[in-house]
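hiii, so i know i said id send this last week but things got crazy w the move. better late than never?? heres the sequnce for the chain we talked about at the cafe, plus the structure i predicted for it. fair warning i was half asleep when i ran it
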Amino acid sequence: MPNVFAHLSDEALVALVARSDDEAFAELYDRYDSLAYGLARRLLRDGALAEDAVQDAFLTIWRSASRFNAERAPARVWILTLVHRRAVDLVRHHERRRTEQLPQREEKGDEGADETVWLRLQRDRVRDALRQLPDQQREAIELAYFGGFTQTQLAERLGQPLGTIKSRMFSGLARLRELLDDANPEGDPWSGTTFTS
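okay and structure toks below
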């Protein structure tokens, strides 16, 4: 049976998907499934999670095809951006779960309680500052510091040149220092906090 959608552009397929056309969606999925999976697999390094990321991204495509704007970017870029975002979300989710599952150290006495409160406040302060960074800078810093990836590994995972990753890290850390310094009143015990790349 001939494929009636084979001659259509990606953008035309997305327009049909916006009208809930199952066959157009299947064609779009067939065109991008392998490429999307490869991208997610590079980021997640786990086949099952990569499949989840691709499925979630295509579910988003099905639900939001009517909002696609071809003037902003080609359909290919839109699709792969959705896959990339979902994969990064899964990386963050799993890193957060891993961090939360670490056993809390129970301290005895006031000194231990003070240290626990201090550490919690410091962690919240850093997270607030991270939220204010541009997405690409925050992503690089979070994956490096919370995920334990080197800059070379980040370049490979994110499909970016090493120089771009270094620039994002440098700019992001500089901005993070500014944000943390601005939030620091004089005499604050965190004033010596530093971040290195």
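btw The chain has a mean pLDDT of 80. thought thatd interest u
miss u guys!!
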